[in-house]
Amino acid sequence: MHEHRDATDAEARALASGVRLRILRATLDEPLTNREIAEALDLNPATCLHHVRTLVDTGFLEALEVRRGRRGAREIPYRATGKSWYTRSPVGASSMLEAFLAEIALVPEDERGAMTRLGLRLPEEQMEEFRDRLHALIMEFHDRPRDPDAQPWSFFLSLHPDTSQRRTGR
């Protein structure tokens, strides 16, 4: 089991891009070439390669053995290493939100699954319990073996101070 750790400056910069986070998601279960990543994310291949190289240089993506692609061209498939899951980045929140919004926009409304929004007012010790239990549940499912035949799902969670009461002066 890996321990969570703080990102280096280079790692934090790499994770500060919603596009890079989407590349990591796209290559999580299946290695993809730069061309395949660019097509999947609707990116220019040169722009995509810049992001891919940044992720490889920081260890978030790994280059696999060269293969022959269409018309016999040499292609390098890339696969996410999973390192980003264990790397805490101070600049990652906005890039995670950017990646989430780009991904959810592609999912039809009737396929989005459960969405919920909840306001809480708990004493600090109960908030800490809430955070710990959420983290334990997420890690339990994260650590289960991935079933290559199962439908892939994405999960986004944000716990933050509620600002709605601040506007009303309460």
Automatic annotation (TrEMBL):
Residues 10-106 form the HTH arsR-type domain. It holds the Pfam family HTH_20. InterPro entries: ArsR-like_HTH, HTH_ArsR_DNA-bd_dom, WH-like_DNA-bd_sf, WH_DNA-bd_sf. One of its GO terms (molecular function) is DNA-binding transcription factor activity. It comes from the Bacteria. This is ArsR family transcriptional regulator. It comes from Ornithinimicrobium avium.
